[in-house]
Amino acid sequence: WYQRRVREAVVSTQSTGSSGINAEYGMYHHFQHYFKQINLSHMLSFVLLLAVLATTCHSRSAIRSGVAADENDYMPQGEHNSDYDHEAFLGHDQKAVYDNLPAPEAKKRLQDLIPHLDEDGDGQITVDELHDWIKKQLLVYIMDDANALHEGNDVNHDGFVSWKEFVATTYGLGFVDNEQKAPEEGEFDYRQMILRDYNKFISADANGDQFLSVDEMASFIHPEEFHHTRHLAIEESLKDLDRNGDGLVSVDEYMADLLADEEELMNDIELLERERRKFSEQHDTDKDGFL
User: Fold this and answer.
1) What local confidence, expressed as pLDDT, does residue 26 receive?
2) In Å, how far from its chain's centre is CA 277?
3) Cβ atoms 151, 8 nearer than 8 A
4) According to the 3-state scheme, what is the secondary structure of the chain?
5) pTM score
6) 72 pLDDT band (50/70/90 cuts)?
7) Which of the two residues, 3 and 280, has the higher pLDDT score?
8) Which residues of 194-228 are buried (b: 16+ CB within 10 A; e: fewer)?
9) Which span out of 19-33, 97-111, 153-167, 244-258 was modeled with the highest average pLDDT?
10) Percent of the chain residues topping a pLDDT of 70
11) pLDDT at 180
12) Which region, left, alpha or beta, applies to residue 39 given φ > 0 means left and ψ of -120 to 50 means alpha?
């Protein structure tokens, strides 16, 4: 949610040609209770960092669990979360529409969807057909995301995004042709983030023409969902989780990453034990104690 809302603010301001500071500050305002002592200079640096993170990050938890969802999403505290089912089935935007419909109208619309799920026309929805449908809804979200970001970065409106265009709209004109410049004192160092983005850009550029189409932009911002870029998502996740730099992820590193994202889980002994079991039973396939 956080990444999606920040990205929407950034894309909105990019597409209108504005500086982006007002909309991005609106997102910052939601989290200002964490930053009450921050000064203006630091705040503006933080706002720029939000913009960059929104266009470059993908969910480590999605990579860690191997699927888009974690058990805690659909079974929080062991209770079935029907809202999760609704969003998976309808997609984020359509779920919001259905939530505001009268029950009879929502039921009718759901019935109208059945022929679209029933691929073989036998009047029954199999698990595979349901699986295919949910994958299509995910793809709709990804392509909506890609279209919005592509439009915001296509500065000359030629239908493609060059690396220079992406750098200019994401990091600022000062980084064009100077992506690895050392930061001034007190400035954030973007060099590693820019290098990661460049590697993703090259991998996403399937035809090697040094420009990204909308389809290629989809694999750039969601590398975990496409075969030709998935290795980058895995490599980035490995680097993020591998705290001692030995090229492996231990169960302690795995758990540290989980708690870094959700510190409130530290006291949930049952959940922590379940995550440890998931590491050893599901992820560590060769049972050597490492990923």
Assistant:
1) 36
2) 26
3) no
4) CHHHHHHHHHHHHHHHCCCCHHHHHHHHHHCHHHCCCCCHHHHHHHHHHHHHHHHHCCCHHHHHHCCCCCHHHHCHHHCCCHHHHHHHHHCHHHHHHHHCCCHHHHHHHHHHHHHHHCCCCCCCCCHHHHHHHHHHHHHHHHHHHHHHHHHHHCCCCCCCEEHHHHHHHHCCHHHCCCCCCCCCCCCCCCHHHHHHHHHHHHHHCCCCCCEECHHHHHHHHCHHHCCCCHHHHHHHHHHHHCCCCCCCCEHHHHHHHHHHHCHHHHHCHHHHHHHHHHHHHHHCCCCCCEC
5) 0.62
6) low
7) 280
8) bebbeebbebbbeeeeebbbbebbbbbbbbbbbee
9) 153-167
10) 71
11) 74
12) beta
12-19, long-range: CB within 8 Å, 24+ apart, which pairs?
12/152, 14/152, 14/153, 14/169, 15/148, 15/151, 15/152
Residue among 255, 285, 283 nearest 271 (CA): 255
Lowest mean pLDDT among 64-68, 190-194, 217-221: 64-68
Other residues' Cβ atoms within 10 Å of the Cβ of residue 261: 11
What residues contact residue 75 under an 8 Å CB cut-off, 6+ apart? 81
Predicted confidence at residue 101, as pLDDT, reads 86
Structure tokens at 180: 């690895």
**Average pLDDT score over residue span 36-48:** 41
Per-residue pLDDT for 162 more than 90? yes
Amino acid of residue 34: Y
Burial of 71 (0-12, 13-18, 19+ CB in 10 A): middle
Per the DSSP assignment, residues forming a β-bridge with 211 are: 162
Q: Which two tokens stand for residue 66?
A: 């191997």
